[in-house]
Amino acid sequence: MSPHSLTLVSGFVAVVSVNIVIAFYIFMALKEPVDKHEPDAAFVAQAKDSVKKLTGNKPVDSPESSKKEE
């Protein structure tokens, strides 16, 4: 095979391989049950505390936090 043909074949194989991996991940995500995931209460509480510290102790769902500065 010529170097040009070898490059084309290698590129084609790489593209097909990546598409197979992406299709596999999509298939596995669709196969996963929806009700399986439940948030960890300790993690959620820690995340809310972290957000409160970053926003200056404002409630997470407050309208003030979603306003844009003009």
TrEMBL record:
Q: Which UniProt keywords apply?
A: Cytoplasmic vesicle, Endoplasmic reticulum, Membrane, Transmembrane, Transmembrane helix
One GO biological process this protein is involved in is: vacuolar proton-transporting V-type ATPase complex assembly
Segments crossing the lipid bilayer: 6-27
Q: State the coiled-coil residue ranges.
A: none
Q: Which domain of life is it from?
A: Eukaryota
InterPro entries reported in the protein's UniProt record: Vma21 (IPR019013)
Naming one, the record's GO cellular component terms include: endoplasmic reticulum membrane
**What protein am I looking at?**
Vacuolar ATPase assembly integral membrane protein VMA21 homolog
User: What is the source species?
Assistant: Linum trigynum
